[in-house]
Specification:
transmembrane; 459 residues; PHAF1/BROMI; 10-stranded antiparallel β-sheet; PHAF1; 8-stranded antiparallel β-sheet
């Protein structure tokens, strides 16, 4: 019987004893507003002794409807990422007693320094009167890029109803309220972000000019990819030298040893063998794989990734913001460039089928539960393009997980890149629990497994 040595926890990480720098309007600790979710995971991986229990929460039935949340239950805070851009829009400390924050040279929060109204006001200074939420019984105090929520006992709510009333530094009995939630958000828009409906007002800060993150990639089926920010054109048939010149060095190069789908390719003139010399260029930071023919060294396939949670490749790629125009299918120019005739990462599978029609049966892909805990996936092939939708929802309206493009007009049967091209960038998901339509991922290389996971409300 093998004995597994228990993992050593970093001294001082138990129940909020860590200290993180509070930067109003910017972030907390190593987490900054506007950072992509992949950068947040990178920060977590670099500090495994501190962030050893990590929950990832999302709404699997409609992944673009609610935030993607990375939660640290031991430290009482979580990170909210916009589901479309996957950038950090809001940081919430939901259990102030578990996390000690450093502002300038002073500490607040944690088990030893209560974040009372008096302490907050003394540390951060004067500000305008806040807002009282009568339904929740909470008074919200705002600073630029920072807000505090204080529960008000029912017997003292009268002193908070008047918007011109004094700040509730103390109650008539001499006590002072203690904050129950701290929100850190981008303060450049002058929005007041707090609990309840005010939480939705938090947005990620604008991207810097010429940023390549979420760059639109326009797809011309059977022809090329066009990158709108950099202005690069990458057509089918391009050489590796062409790709290096336009996109720079790839993040990885993966030799494809076998082609398991050659048996389905009736037009392939090569001998019927699975031995394959094709190879991938992996551009993880662009959400893109490029497959080259091993004999001609020309591009034969593109794979565009959407990086949705619940997919085996989640966090292996940054989201590719592709746009496939309806002009490549049918209809007039005006119709083709309307939103309803464009396929993007937010297009649901039912909408894709409405545009392209029924493609018949799907090819089934499975890597076994050890490699992919989310089960089999389905790939639907059309002329020159194939889709793998995520069909977790009961209405089968999942978002598209990735898109494959090929030059030849033949019907694409199935993705042939699966399980390849990402040796150095393993997806960080291993265990999923479902609760009332939501899902929680427990990140295995970042956490100690627990017997039961309680999914906190994320709405």
């Amino acid at each position: 019987m093998s004995h597994q040595k228990p993992r050593k926890r970093c001294e001082g990480t138990a129940m909020g004893a860590i200290v993180l720098d509070l930067r109003p309007g910017i972030g907390i600790g190593s987490f900054s507003l506007g950072m992509p979710i992949c950068e947040a995971f990178a920060q977590i991986e670099q500090q495994p002794n501190i962030y050893d229990v990590v929950h990832v929460k999302y709404f699997d039935e409609e992944p673009l409807k609610l935030d993607i949340v990375i939660s640290f239950p031991d430290h009482g805070f979580h990170l909210r990422f916009d589901p479309w851009s996957q950038r950090l829009r809001l940081i919430e400390i939901f259990d102030v007693k578990r996390l000690q924050m450093r502002y300038a040279t002073s500490l607040i929060g944690g088990p030893s320094t209560l974040a009372t109204f008096v302490a907050v006001y003394a540390l951060f200074g004067p500000t305008f009167p806040g807002i009282y939420d009568n339904d929740r019984g909470v008074y919200m105090l705002f600073y630029p890029g920072l807000s505090f929520a204080f529960p008000i006992p029912s017997q003292y709510t009268d002193c908070c109803n008047d918007r011109e009333a004094e700040l509730p530094l103390e109650f008539p009995d001499g006590t002072t309220p203690v904050t129950c939630r701290v929100s850190i958000y981008d303060g450049s828009t002058d929005q007041k972000v707090g609990v309840g409906s005010l939480m939705a007002k938090a947005v990620a800060p604008p991207l810097p000019p010429e940023s390549l993150y979420m760059e639109e990639v326009h797809v011309k089926l059977g022809d090329e990819l066009f990158f709108t920010v950099g202005g690069q054109h990458i057509p089918f048939g391009s050489s590796p030298q062409d790709v290096w010149t336009e996109l720079g060095r790839p993040c990885g190069i993966h030799q494809k040893q076998v082609d398991q789908m050659v048996i389905h390719s009736v037009s392939d003139p090569r001998p019927r063998t699975t031995i394959c010399g094709d190879y991938f260029y992996n551009y993880f930071t662009r959400g893109l794989d490029i497959l080259f023919d091993g004999q001609t060294h020309k591009i034969k396939k593109f794979v565009l990734h959407t990086n949705y949670p619940g997919h085996a490749d989640f966090n292996s790629y940054i989201k590719c913001n592709f746009v496939i125009s309806g002009s490549d299918f049918e209809g007039s120019y005006t119709e083709a460039h309307s939103d309803k005739n464009r396929i993007t990462p937010c297009t649901k599978w039912e909408q894709v089928k409405e545009m392209l029609g029924d493609c018949g049966r799907a090819a089934i892909q499975t890597q076994g539960s050890a490699s992919n805990p989310f089960g089999s996936t389905f790939v639907y092939g059309y002329q020159s393009i194939a889709f793998e939708p995520q069909l977790d929802g009961p209405a089968l309206q999942g978002a598209v997980a990735y898109v494959q493009l090929c030059e030849s007009p033949q019907i694409m049967l199935v993705a042939s890149y699966k399980g390849e091209g990402r040796d150095n960038c393993t997806a960080m998901t291993s265990h999923k629990e479902r609760f009332r339509g939501h899902s929680t991922l427990v990140v295995p290389n970042l956490c100690l497994f627990v017997n039961q996971i309680k999914l906190q409300a994320i709405v």
